[in-house]
Amino acid sequence: MTIVHVQQPVWQNQLKNALSSPEEISQALACDPDEIATVNSHYPLRISPYYLELIRQGGEPLFRQAVPDIRELDDPLGMVDPLAEESLSPVPNLVHRYPDRALFLVSNQCAMYCRFCTRKRKVGKKSMRVNKETIAAGVKYLKNTPQIREVLISGGDPLLLSDQALEQILQQLQAIQHIKVLRIGTRTPCTLPMRITPELVNMLRKYHPLYINTHFNHPAEITQEAERACTLLADAGIPLGCQTVLLKGINDSLPVLQELLYRLLEIRVRPYYLMQGDLTEGTAHFRTDIKTGLALMRGLIGSISGMAVPTYILDAPYGKGKIPLTPDYILSHQEDKLDFKNYQGIPCSYPFL
Ligand SMILES: *Cc1c(COP(=O)(O)O)cnc(C)c1O
Ligand code: SF4
Fold first, then answer.
1. Does the N terminus or the C terminus of the chain have fewer Cβ atoms within 10 A?
2. Which of 31, 71, 75, 101 is catalytic?
3. pTM over 0.90
4. CB distance 151 to ligand 1 below 6 Å
5. Average pLDDT, integer, range 66-82
6. Where are the domains of the chain?
7. Which of 47, 108, 187, 191 to mutate to test the pocket of ligand 2 (most atoms within 8 A of CB)?
């Protein structure tokens, strides 16, 4: 008799061993199980062993992203669906807000449930149903909507699907003539970097032009493993961007943000957006004042490589779309010239032609 050992990939073991109960988390990180259980009755819970180790090393800024906090249940300004995604969904799990691109949610799971998640109302919950039917309905809508040139594949986290399941989706999208560009949003390079395997990358490289936007919020998240994951993806010709969320007490300081942005460039990830926290219910304790965000942008622009400077984005409530928030450099519009100040505050002007 032969015994066949089927080796689970490392990333699947990480998920199997993820902490997902109040007891496990309170034991691992010495916190109050009752508080966590109270929050957990509203919102899901998951921390991969990999990220747990990072929390042990990196402390507070990582702890707060991952561990439930009783303040999640106290948010008077909060809205369940601040971006009106549900009313902008022609079929479930497909948000069509802009004319030429659509957001396709193909997974309801993540390697970690970030406490500040903008889709907290559904990600990781049973009520978010993603299955063969919803995916088929999404593909059908995309096929029948020729003005869509780009599809953003998101979730949850699309890289929690198996390589085969993800490839089936990519194949169907690639077969649609009017879809020219694919983009995947995934936090796995940060929260589960072992998900980025040579097999996955060899599959993904068949679907160019394919872009990946990932999500790092703090320099302590940029580890050797994260660098290995990003290198594999970049070497497969996949341009990498980062959508960082501005989080109070975590990355809303100039030194932390500068270090994060520099480190991202070093691992070949181009900072794309710095996102102002949405008004998502349960995230009040993470929200930073817009004035603070603008001051941070003023501190970055000109002082660090332009390659490292993201666009500071406000996603307007009620699904009105993203707008850039930029510090004001213009002093006045004169008859014949524009008066402005440079990044150091020195006044300058340029003639109108
Ligand atoms: C953010 C978002 C996009 C993509 O916007 P970009 O500015 O192109 O990154 C598309 N659709 C929806 C619904 C979004 O929320
Ligand atoms: S990885 Fe993204 S979608 Fe998943 S919980 Fe975190 S913020 Fe939300």
1. N
2. 101
3. yes
4. no
5. 95
6. 73-324
7. 187
